[in-house]
Amino acid sequence: MANHASALKRIRQTATRRLLNKYKHKTARNAIRELQALNDKKAASALLPKVVGMLDKLSKTNIIHKNKAANLKSKLTKHVNSLAKAKSAKAAPKAK
């Protein structure tokens, strides 16, 4: 166990930060899952900026690596853009 007041304070700070970081990371993961599950272009486009903002904040505070955040943002953006293409591809056969 810690013998100094500063060490005890550091233990308390670390525990508090760990809980907060865990909460933020889990919230972002759930938002990512929710966005990936969406099939509606309009809803996905509305949710994408919020999720991107979460990822930026996580990478800024070193909860996740900046490259991981960039990869996730890229993957999510591709998903949202593919929703529009899938919808237009479905509409094309009906036009025949």
| Low confidence ranges | none
The helix content is over 70%
Whole-number average pLDDT?
Answer: 92
H-E order: HHH
Q: Biggest β-sheet, characterized?
A: none
**What is the CATH top level name?**
Mainly Alpha
Second-tier CATH architecture = Up-down Bundle
Binned strand content: under 5%
Whole-number radius of gyration? 20 Å
Judged by helices, strands and strand pairing, the structural class is mainly alpha
Task: State the distance separating the first and last CA atoms.
Answer: 76 Å
Describe this entry's structure for a reader.
- Helices cover 86% and strands 0% of the residues.
- The chain is mainly α and 96 residues long.
- The model has no long low-confidence stretch (mean pLDDT 92).
- It has one domain (5-85): Ribosomal protein S20 (Methane Monooxygenase Hydroxylase, Chain G, domain 1), CATH 1.20.58.110.
